[in-house]
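Provenance and format

Records in this collection were gathered into a single text stream. Each protein contributes a sequence line and a token line. The two records reproduced below are adjacent in the stream.
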Amino acid sequence: MLIGWIGPQPDKALQAAQLEAINVGECFSCSLDDVLDKCHFGDTLAVWRLDVFSGPDEISRTLKTLNSRGVAFVSVHEGVRIDADSGALVRDLIRDVAKMAAKYQL
């Protein structure tokens, strides 16, 4: 199942735009823990942008959790797709790039 997550989004206009961009059957505006509870083996978690996460460490932890459950990951805006087979390598690469972006405010 393809599961969309936009995070807790108080801005209704932005929420609607993100939901439309992700374009999946089930999309949630809830906490990260709540959406992870909905993800099971064979599912794919889709987000609009990586900045839905609080930072590089949360991205890394989430991708590690998804990988351990056999859940794929897609970030629509950045064009990132991680399947369960390549999860560890890509997770570490994304974490390092996110840390560099935060450090240099890119």
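Adjacent record:
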Amino acid sequence: MCGQAPPARCPAGSHGGAPAGHRRGAGSSGPPGASTDPAQHNGPAAVSVYFRPQETGASVDGLPLLQASLRGRTLSGVKLPLPAGCTGVVLEQKGGGDAGEGDRWAASAAFSHMHHWNHDAAPLKGDGLRRCFEWAELAAGVHAPVNPAAVAAAAAAAPRQQAAAG
């Protein structure tokens, strides 16, 4: 490595022009990002230096559309709120306990929204991540307590609705 501090670029030839602190795999050739070798880096990354989402002024399904570029590809995204009653957590491994206990995890941060990105196309309601969010509402309805009076009223109304439709 060249020893320069991030986010400086290393001199040509030192390791392919990758950011300081980043070492490309042996045998790599071509520009950074073109290599099939995995990056050998374990540490913080200056993400905000390279990844800068901007609002486009457009909206998708009522959410402001964001646009960014990553490794030369355009990304389109939206900021999605988590379903009502849900909180996201970032888990951190805290090491194993006694034998057979398995690993221990602890929440190190919480969040109430996440960003959904697609390459070259805006994220839509039919995308997998957005459809997963619908399951939280469905699960809440399925597991909600049942009111016997409401069930009886719905059962009594069903024959009247069928007769009116026929």
